Amino acid sequence: MTNTRRFFLALALSSAAALPLTMSTVVSANAATADDLNKDAAQSLQSLYKTNPVADQISKKARAVLVFPKIVKAGLIFGGAYGEGVLQEGPKVVNYYNSFSASWGLQAGAQSYGYVVFLMNAKAMDYVEKSNGWEIGVGPTVVIVNEGVAKNLSTSTLKDDAYAFIFDQEGLMAGVSIEGTKISKIKR
Fold first, then answer.
1. What is the pLDDT of residue 3?
2. What tens digit of pLDDT does each residue of 114-144 get?
3. Which is higher by pLDDT, 101 or 152?
4. Residue in 136, 27, 55, 39 with CA at minimum distance from that of residue 93
5. DSSP assignment letter at 91
6. Strand, helix or coil at 4?
7. What is the DSSP string of 124-160?
8. How far apart are CA 15 and CA 141, in angstroms?
9. How far apart are CA 78 and CA 15, in angstroms?
10. Chain-centre distance for alpha carbon 111
């Protein structure tokens, strides 16, 4: 085995060994009470609506809203992201969920962000409520709304099952994707 292969093998093994510690730290750091989650979700929504008028418009047409105020992502070749949030119908919190994703590849660093998914119809709501964990990208159609998409969106053009907004991105990793993220119901 060449020195280069040994190096990459050692790096991969050390990253894999560190991941459970990193993710358990992230999970325990994010575990919040129901009251904490409710307050953080409400503050995140208000902040999003102030900075993004399209999100505010979509919220008025949505049947429900999944709010994940803070997701923490960390990785060194292998990575993961975790956060907890709420499902709201109108102003009322009806359930609690977690958001988890794992990844591998060329990555190093840590970051945090939040995201909101507006569920626009009964199909999307039923899928979230009745599935044993929803993987974004499977099931209801989710449109990730960035600045380019937002310019062409209005309440009269909303035809998809769900619209997602990512906000408050901080940290050293480039870009955020929620595709492949698994959302599962939790007890609070």
1. 39
2. 999 999 999 998 888 888 778 776 767 787 7
3. 101
4. 39
5. T
6. helix
7. HHHHHHHSSSEETTSSS-EEE--HHHHHT--TTS--S
8. 34
9. 6
10. 12
Q: What DSSP state is assigned to residue 90?
A: T
Distances from the Cα of 115 to the Cαs of 6, 106, 178, in angstroms?
Answer: 39, 24, 9
What residue type is assigned to position 85 of the chain? G
CB 33 within 8 A of CB 93: no
**Average pLDDT for residues 136-162, to the nearest whole number?**
66
Hey, is 23 helix, strand or coil? helix
Q: DSSP class of residue 43?
A: H
* Token duo for residue 131: 């599935």
pLDDT of amino acid 177:
62
**Of 70 and 30, which is predicted with more confidence?**
70
Residues near 97 by beta carbon (within 8 Å), at least 6 away in sequence: 66, 68, 84, 85, 86, 87, 183, 184, 185, 186
CA atoms within 13 A on the CB side of 18: 13
- The Cα–Cα gap between 124 and 56 comes to 19
**More confident: 176 or 73:** 73
Taking the CB of residue 159, how many other CB atoms lie within 10 A of it? 9
DSSP 59: H
**Nearest CA among 185, 169, 181 for reference residue 98:** 185
